[in-house]
Automatic annotation (TrEMBL), chain A:
<dbReference type="GO" id="GO:0015833">
    <property type="term" value="P:peptide transport"/>
</dbReference>
<comment type="similarity">
    <text>Belongs to the ABC transporter superfamily.</text>
</comment>
<keyword id="KW-0547">Nucleotide-binding</keyword>
<dbReference type="InterPro" id="IPR027417">
    <property type="entry name" value="P-loop_NTPase"/>
</dbReference>
<dbReference type="GO" id="GO:0016887">
    <property type="term" value="F:ATP hydrolysis activity"/>
</dbReference>
<keyword id="KW-0067">ATP-binding</keyword>
<dbReference type="Pfam" id="PF08352">
    <property type="entry name" value="oligo_HPY"/>
</dbReference>
<dbReference type="Pfam" id="PF00005">
    <property type="entry name" value="ABC_tran"/>
</dbReference>
<dbReference type="InterPro" id="IPR017871">
    <property type="entry name" value="ABC_transporter-like_CS"/>
</dbReference>
From TrEMBL, chain B:
<dbReference type="InterPro" id="IPR017871">
    <property type="entry name" value="ABC_transporter-like_CS"/>
</dbReference>
<feature type="domain" description="ABC transporter">
    <location>
        <begin position="5"/>
        <end position="256"/>
    </location>
</feature>
<feature type="region of interest" description="Disordered">
    <location>
        <begin position="325"/>
        <end position="348"/>
    </location>
</feature>
<keyword id="KW-0472">Membrane</keyword>
<dbReference type="GO" id="GO:0016887">
    <property type="term" value="F:ATP hydrolysis activity"/>
</dbReference>
<dbReference type="InterPro" id="IPR027417">
    <property type="entry name" value="P-loop_NTPase"/>
</dbReference>
<protein>
    <submittedName>
        <fullName>Oligopeptide transport system ATP-binding protein</fullName>
    </submittedName>
</protein>
<dbReference type="InterPro" id="IPR003593">
    <property type="entry name" value="AAA+_ATPase"/>
</dbReference>
<dbReference type="InterPro" id="IPR050388">
    <property type="entry name" value="ABC_Ni/Peptide_Import"/>
</dbReference>
Length: 313, 348
């Protein structure tokens, strides 16, 4: 089918990430997560705080050593031991943009050095002149200018800092960028600027994004496909249009019904759907099933039939 | 409607190393009994400073009320001293802060924190206060309040803590509740619960609420009237319908346009270019002019007055002047206006 023609860039297979928080207690931040990201698409990951969406991003880029399962990038395992050359090669292809534009830039480094750090590490430039020009180019790409190169991070506003974070990520010409809540610390008017920039860059450079966020309307806007996470696992995955028009899992429904929209008439008539995890029961007999092409839901046999019926109408 | 609070020509400044930052510049608004007024704006627009001035919680001596009056029950809050303010604060004017993680005392039991105001402002004894506190915790839908009273803040989740904050604020039946981004730090599902609780309580107690936020979705949900702030000024004020379906100021257009709606599939979001001005040196004319694609020449020279759109709707933009060229708002805003007209069946 169409699915198979698209090239899989990232494959997450049964990923588990458990953290020891005490001698006996283990937090299962991610528990058996499986999904794929195709080349050139934006995959949105949403869920409430503590559902494991950031941990997923961090495990994919090897900031955490996975407890179990594997992450394949272009068919090669990301996790596990690697020699220096392989690791460098891998780091060049995958970059990350962080949530907090204040703490993710070194306050003691000038913008020139922050952006050029990746170039230096990977030996992508041969002379000082080239290094400088490359940084200028990158700054312009993200909507800043040359003069900014000699400044320190504290001289920038939140939106500008996030642009610096993007410039830094782009420096090594990656194929895949993980954006972990890149806009949640920014003001509404600035959010739109950054989202537009990310979209423009994707088109120009054929980038693939993993976009992690809790702002569902923005996620819908930027993503091609969206995965909804709940307590360390995906409960639903579909094309973004499909997910919003036709949510099947009760948690997705409650999440969508909770988004306040900038429309007073809509707000007055809105019915909120509550999700009751106790009534829903445990996930023991449930597995991730394809209800219709491209639309996956965590469900058991009974629910599958019900969802399929609902999906047809 | 009965006015409960009148703010007239309020200006608030901060003295810094570099000079005077004019955080709030000459704003006026009223608050009616039982209504919710939302104040929206970006960070640095002066919305939080305004509410801090209402409570007189500005960090003195750097921050000070430069000018204006705040009339509450025929008395000017600006003229009250700290001792007089302590009698008003928490009793008539109560506040909920943004961050429920840091605004509770971690070393005090939650129940004691709720009881504090009751004992102090309403002369209750401990037993009465305890009973009342349990009642209020029930009101904000905290399950098993008797047990929860004896716990510490770290044993509560973010949403639960914000409920406790609301309970503390409501303990003395305040006439005005000021909520400074009370749901910004919370997840959407929890946010929806908190908003519902606030609406229920308002219906029951007829408290007036000033709700500060930058999320227009939340505004549409909770507000009766909306004031939009930019660079220390109120640039547009009106009922929630007027503001969302008939916005007049280009900045309001920008804010509305930069939020994707769930059924939008436009290629690019409408983004307001540039960044807000530095209030150390506030611009001479309209502060929004440099970011405004519709800016007129006069925008750079003179500050626009508040033009009247309707009895409840005012906007500070020269575009409203009879001499200004006719300008049509961006497509996303037009779509919004048309959709509303179609719904209400009003012609033209």
């Amino acid at each position: 089918m169409i699915e198979d023609q698209r090239e899989k860039l990232v494959e997450v297979k049964n990923l588990k990430q458990h953290f020891k928080t005490g001698r006996k207690t283990i937090v299962k931040a991610i528990d058996g997560l499986t999904f794929e990201i195709y080349k050139g698409e934006t995959f949105g990951l949403v869920g409430e705080s503590g559902c494991g969406k950031s941990t997923t991003g961090r495990s994919i880029i090897r900031l955490y050593e996975a407890t179990d399962g594997e992450v394949l990038f272009k068919g090669k395992n990301v996790q596990g031991k690697k020699n220096k050359k392989d690791l460098k090669d891998f780091n060049r292809q995958m970059q990350m943009i962080f949530q907090d534009p204040y703490s993710s830039l070194n306050p003691r480094m000038k913008v020139l050095d922050i952006v050029a750090e990746g170039l230096d590490v990977h030996g992508l430039v041969n002379s000082k002149e080239e290094r400088k020009n490359r940084v200028y180019e990158l700054l312009e790409t993200v909507g800043l200018n040359k003069q900014h190169a000699s400044r320190y991070p504290h001289e920038f506003s939140g939106g500008q800092r996030q642009r610096l974070g993007i410039a830094r990520a782009l420096a090594v010409d990656p194929e895949f960028i993980i954006a972990d809540e890149p806009i949640s610390a920014l003001d509404v008017s600035i959010q739109a600027q950054v989202v537009n920039l990310l979209k423009k860059l994707q088109k120009e450079k054929n980038l693939t994004y993993l976009f992690i966020a809790h702002d569902l309307s923005m996620v819908k806007y930027i993503s091609d496909r969206i995965g909804v996470m709940y307590f360390g696992n995906l409960v639903e995955l579909a094309d973004s249009e499909e997910l919003y028009k036709n949510p099947l899992h009760p948690y997705t429904k409650s999440l969508l019904s909770a988004i306040p929209l900038p429309d007073p008439d809509h707000e007055r008539t809105r019915k909120r759907i509550q999700y009751d995890p106790e009534a829903y029961g445990s996930n023991e007999n449930r597995s991730f099933q394809e209800v219709k092409p491209g639309h996956w839901v965590l469900c058991n046999e009974e629910e599958l039939a019900e969802y399929q019926g609902a999906a047809l109408t | 409607m009965e006015k409960i609070l009148e703010v007239k020509n309020l200006s608030v400044s901060f003295n810094t190393h570099d000079g005077e930052v004019q955080a709030v510049r000459d704003i006026s608004f009223d608050l009616h009994k039982g209504e919710t007024l939302a104040i929206v704006g970006e960070s640095g627009s002066g919305k939080s400073v305004t509410t801090k001035a209402l409570m007189k919680l500005l960090p003195e001596p750097q921050g000070f009320i430069k000018n204006g009056e705040i009339m509450f029950e025929n008395e000017d809050i600006v003229k009250k001293n700290e001792k007089q303010m302590q009698k008003v604060r928490g009793k008539d004017l109560a506040m909920i802060f943004q961050d429920p993680m840091t605004s509770l005392n971690p070393t005090m039991k939650v129940g004691t924190q709720v009881m504090e105001g009751l004992i102090r402002h309403r002369n209750m004894n401990k037993q009465q206060a305890r009973e009342k506190a349990i009642e209020i915790l029930k009101l904000v839908k905290i399950p098993e309040p008797e047990i929860r009273m004896k716990q510490y803040p770290h044993q509560f989740s973010g949403g639960m803590r914000q409920r406790v904050m609301i309970a503390i604020a409501l303990a003395c039946d305040p006439k005005i509740l000021i909520a400074d981004e009370p749901t910004t730090a919370l997840d959407v599902t929890i946010q929806a619960q908190i908003l519902d609780i606030m609406k229920d309580i308002q219906a029951e107690t007829n408290t007036s609420i000033i709700f500060i936020t930058h999320d227009l979705g939340v505004v549409a949900n909770i507000a009766d009237r909306v004031a939009v702030m930019y660079a220390g000024k109120i640039i547009e004020i009106g009922t929630v319908d007027e503001l969302f379906y008939n916005p007049k100021h280009p900045y309001t257009w920008g804010l509305l346009g930069s939020m994707p709606t769930l059924d939008s599939s436009e290629e690019e979001l409408f983004a307001i270019p540039g960044t807000p001005p530095d209030l150390l040196y506030p611009p001479k004319g309209d502060a929004f002019a440099p970011r405004n694609e519709f800016a007129l020449k006069i925008d750079y020279e003179e500050q626009p007055p508040m033009f009247k759109v309707s009895d409840t709707h005012y906007a500070a933009t020269w575009l409203m002047d009879p001499k200004a060229p006719a300008i049509s708002p961006p497509p996303s805003v037009q779509k919004r206006m048309q959709a509303d007209k179609a719904k209400k069946g009003v012609l033209k």
